[in-house]
UniProtKB/TrEMBL annotation:
<keyword id="KW-0472">Membrane</keyword>
<protein>
    <recommendedName>
        <fullName>Alpha-1,2-mannosidase</fullName>
    </recommendedName>
</protein>
<dbReference type="Pfam" id="PF07971">
    <property type="entry name" value="Glyco_hydro_92"/>
</dbReference>
<dbReference type="InterPro" id="IPR041371">
    <property type="entry name" value="GH92_N"/>
</dbReference>
<dbReference type="InterPro" id="IPR012939">
    <property type="entry name" value="Glyco_hydro_92"/>
</dbReference>
<dbReference type="Pfam" id="PF17678">
    <property type="entry name" value="Glyco_hydro_92N"/>
</dbReference>
<dbReference type="InterPro" id="IPR005887">
    <property type="entry name" value="GH92_a_mannosidase_put"/>
</dbReference>
<keyword id="KW-0812">Transmembrane</keyword>
<dbReference type="InterPro" id="IPR050883">
    <property type="entry name" value="PNGase"/>
</dbReference>
<feature type="transmembrane region" description="Helical">
    <location>
        <begin position="12"/>
        <end position="32"/>
    </location>
</feature>
<feature type="domain" description="Glycosyl hydrolase family 92 N-terminal">
    <location>
        <begin position="55"/>
        <end position="292"/>
    </location>
</feature>
<dbReference type="InterPro" id="IPR014718">
    <property type="entry name" value="GH-type_carb-bd"/>
</dbReference>
<keyword id="KW-1133">Transmembrane helix</keyword>
<dbReference type="InterPro" id="IPR008928">
    <property type="entry name" value="6-hairpin_glycosidase_sf"/>
</dbReference>
<feature type="domain" description="Glycosyl hydrolase family 92">
    <location>
        <begin position="298"/>
        <end position="766"/>
    </location>
</feature>
Length: 785
């Protein structure tokens, strides 16, 4: 018995140690891994930070959330991942779908986009069968894909398994072939993501060239179209292989012949490229691939040829840790909360893409800060950009610098932008709010006179006409297409599409201008734009009603003669809620709350604090019906607005209800498109227990989901949150201290928490719905001081 027990004591620690090693190191696939789950096949290196293991890269990656799950870096230009055709799931806008067949492994993707996909370009596809140009070559998975931060892996049924790693502007693709199979790699130059169910918004191949040798290849591809309806744009590429091919074949359409050079054009619509055959004796092929919008030579120079696969994975993880994860220390009695925090933090740092030195448009200089893939600012201005202005002021600064440089070089700031071109604008010129948020939070290294000039361009000049079949009334490429109505009537009439949502957004945009003008000492502009920010009141109809509700007063369309249009009007419906409707992705009743700079006036219009709170109650199943949709950004702020009528406990209750019912774990975790990380930013602020009013210094206070959190600010200070008594029942604030002092306001200023000295929030939570806030309500700014 003693001997048996001693053996047991010796055996179990080693068993658990081995299991720990298996599950905390990167995966690698060998020829026999198709019979073994990838997480059990390991390299000799360990993931070097706990956050790396907590991030689920597949969070929100289904065809609703469209989060990109492949290998990339924070704001990286390269997003290396799979491109999948899955008829059951529909189009894969990020390239990924959990089912279907893999048609390519490409270098560029968006993350979290709706509308239509972008990129999926510069692709390889390993295979082992005979090449048949008459069918689309593809791979079938033998199990679900696996991934960690900076690493992605695919097991297939075709005798080859795949691993991917990404640098800033190059990637490494590693293929592990079964013994004895004929190892081949297809380079399809015309490969790209398409929107089969939305052909009017799909990308289209224009032309391209590829030149190869036994050891590598280079060339370019030109595409056009996509959700932003881009003009033709060109991407250059450069790739090499770790072993030389024994044969290189070129193909175009159905024609195949030996050769190292292939040209394609849209006139025939054929796919084209090269096939590299490495023979049956090769078990591993590693390919380095670089990309550039400038030249093939720059694509080659973007590759670090000395870096191997393992070191690239670890370097990418180190960068994620240093720039993002290491800034936070998160403690929770529920480990799922910590997982959720780091996973959403990861998803909030995927786009826009840092492309400094990679803008090919005339006038751009290599040293000008440049970001692309704003997809879109209409989604991100509310809380994603304010998150960057806390977590990474450097990135927040670079984003504003990039927006300003786009204006200086190309004439207008974007709302949506990809492939180095502006387009589309869904509502207002909401880059104005991004800039104002950075300004009032003292983001450094921005030329604010130039930035303000960009904002004034949006506010005063109608952009040149750009035809959009979904909204042909005015340009949707940039700026404020309906500006003439705004200047003439003080609201947008039905002469323009999205008349109600544009009116509300133009008002908020002008408020943003007023704040920057005030800070720059431009008193006339400050007064002018602050007055214009109140023009949303011009579409408030005090007599409007909704069936089944006993209160009056809603925003609604208004004609040029000043009359309200009652025909087919319902405050609880936005029709198709799309480009041609009065409201975009939000009902009139939702947009009625979209005046965070002027809530005091809104409360006055609805009649009382009680009615204001009742109106919020009626939007959500917690108290009413499901009318508001957090899956669309116009209702991001609404759950926190109870704070304006000193019912903060209701904000706490509703935010938790939404988190429980609309946000989950895994590929189906998000209630809508991630929208470039906007959804994830909403989750992060909710978990911390505060929410920003973009373009101001105000944060509305809810209650934290974490027991303890520290954020190490870039200035060396610390922001800290603690939640005494937190449990599933104890969610309500009983008392609060900020910076060690008792706090009686349900809001707090930016500098109080994130200024030179940092800040702290000490919550005492309990089960009682306490009205603890005895101080003044959050500020409203819709009037001159």
């Amino acid at each position: 018995m003693v001997r048996s027990l001693s053996r047991s004591l010796w055996f179990w620690p080693w068993l658990w140690f081995c299991i720990w090693i298996f599950y905390t190191t990167p995966t690698v696939s060998w020829p026999w891994t198709k019979f073994v789950p990838l997480p059990l096949i390991q390299q000799n290196t360990q993931w070097n930070h706990d956050a790396i293991n907590r991030v689920d890269v597949f969070y929100g990656a289904n065809c609703t959330g469209n989060v990109f799950p492949g290998a990339t870096r924070p704001f990286g230009m390269v997003k290396l991942g799979v491109d999948v055709i899955n008829h059951q799931w529909g189009n894969s806008y990020s390239g990924y779908a959990p089912g279907g067949v893999i048609t390519g492994l490409s270098m560029m993707h968006e993350s979290g986009t709706g509308g239509a996909p972008q990129y999926g370009v510069v692709a390889q596809l390993p295979f082992t069968s005979e090449f048949n140009p008459e069918i689309e070559m593809n791979l079938t998975r033998s199990q679900s894909d696996t991934g960690k931060v900076g690493y992605y892996a695919v097991n297939t049924t075709e005798g080859v398994d795949i691993e991917l790693a990404a640098g800033e502007r190059f990637g490494i693709l590693k293929y592990n072939f079964e013994k004895g199979v004929d190892a081949k790699v297809l380079v399809n130059v015309s490969h790209h993501l398409t929107a089969q169910e939305r052909p009017w918004w799909t990308q289209r191949f224009v032309k391209g060239i590829i030149e190869g040798t036994e050891s590598g290849y280079g060339g370019y591809v030109t595409l056009k179209g996509g959700w932003g309806n881009q003009d033709p744009w060109t991407l250059y590429f450069c790739g090499n292989f770790s072993v030389p091919a024994i044969q290189v074949t070129r193909y175009k359409g159905n024609a195949v012949q030996p050769g190292y050079y292939s040209v394609g054009s849209s006139r025939r619509g054929d796919s084209f490229g090269l096939v590299f055959d490495f023979g049956g004796e090769v078990s591993e092929v590693v390919s380095h691939v670089g990309i550039s919008f400038i030249s093939r030579e720059q694509a080659c120079s973007n590759i670090n040829h000395e870096q191997d696969f393992n070191s690239l994975v670890l370097e990418t993880q180190r960068i994620w840790n240093e720039e993002v994860f290491d800034k936070f220390e998160v403690v929770s009695s529920d480990p799922r909360v910590v997982d959720q925090f780091y996973t959403n933090l990861y998803g909030a740092h995927l786009i826009p893409s840092n492309r400094t030195g990679e803008n090919p448009n005339p006038g751009w200089k290599p040293d000008q800060v440049y970001y692309d893939d704003f997809f879109t600012i209409w989604d991100t201005f509310r809380c994603l950009n304010p998150l960057h202005n806390i977590v990474s002021r450097k990135r927040g600064s670079e984003i504003v610098q990039a927006l300003t440089n786009i204006y200086l070089n190309e004439g207008w700031t974007p709302d949506g932008r990809s492939a180095n071109q502006n387009g589309r604008t869904q509502g207002g010129s909401n880059s104005d709010i991004v800039m104002a948020d950075a300004f009032v939070k003292h983001i450094p290294d921005v030329d604010w006179e130039q930035a303000y000039a960009a904002m004034k361009q949006n506010a005063e000049v109608q952009p040149p006409y750009w035809y959009d079949s979904f909204a042909p009334d005015a340009s949707t490429k940039q700026g404020r297409g309906a500006l003439p109505d705004w200047l003439q009537y003080g609201y947008i009439t039905r002469n323009y599409t999205r008349s109600v949502s544009r009116t509300m957004e133009y008002a908020y945009d002008d408020f943003a201008l007023s704040q920057v003008a005030k800070g720059l000492g431009l008193s006339d502009d400050h007064a002018k734009y602050l007055r214009r920010s109140s023009q949303w009141q011009n579409i408030w109809n005090k007599d409007a009603q909704a069936d089944g509700y006993d209160y009056k007063g809603f925003i609604q369309p208004r004609d040029a003669d000043g009359s309200f249009n009652y025909e087919d009007y319902d405050p609880m419906s936005c029709g198709g809620c799309y480009w041609g409707n009065d409201e975009y992705e939000g009902k009139p009743v939702e947009y009625g709350f979209a005046v965070p700079h002027d809530i005091a006036k809104l409360i006055q219009l609805v009649g009382s604090s009680e009615t204001f709170a009742k109106r919020i109650d009626d939007l959500y199943p917690l108290h009413g019906k499901k009318i508001a949709d957090v899956g669309n950004e116009p209702s991001f702020l609404t759950p926190f607005l109870y704070n304006f009528v000193n019912e903060q406990w209701k904000s706490v209750e509703l935010v938790r209800y939404i988190m429980q019912h609309d946000f989950h774990f895994g590929v189906k975790s998000l209630p809508g498109n991630s929208d470039g990380g906007a959804m994830q930013a909403w989750v992060i602020f909710s978990l911390i227990g505060i929410y920003p009013i973009a373009g101001t210094t105000t944060y509305l206070i809810a209650s934290p989901f974490v027991n303890h959190l520290k954020l190490h600010l870039e200035n060396g200070a610390v922001f800290e949150v603690s939640a005494s008594g937190l449990s599933s029942d104890n969610i309500y604030v009983q008392s609060l201290k900020i910076n060690g002092e008792k706090w009686n306001k349900n809001w707090v200023d930016h500098d109080t928490l994130f200024g030179p000295n940092g800040g702290s929030m000490e919550f005492v939570l309990g089960s009682s719905q306490v009205v603890w806030e005895t101080g003044p309500p959050p500020p409203s700014f819709g009037h001159l001081d």
